[in-house]
Input
Amino acid sequence: MNPMRALRQYQKVNSHAQISEASPHRLIQMLMEGGLDRMAQAKGAMSRGDMPQKALLITKAIDIIVGLRQGLDEEKTDDKAALQQLDDLYEYMTVRLTQANVSNDPEMIDEVARLLITVKSGWDAIAPE
Output
């Protein structure tokens, strides 16, 4: 078996194991980490001129942010205004990543990454229940 293929298979099995054992809090952290990873990889593809890979990775980052947005639960918060602000922020992130994809602008990706890092920092500070 090709060593790279074996490594990818191991990573896939390992990530499935992590997901099955993760708390809901940890799953959100993993999604945010995955979004940040995809954005960094998209910037790398952009700098190499690999536009198909860049588009794929930005699309994956957008999908992750859409998933985070869909996971917002109105039932679990008393602060509806904060929830709406986070929903709006996630929507803004998806728009900016789409614009970054069209215009090949790494600065737009950096902007979204900084926003997601800020959200993730707040999430990381919340202890799981």
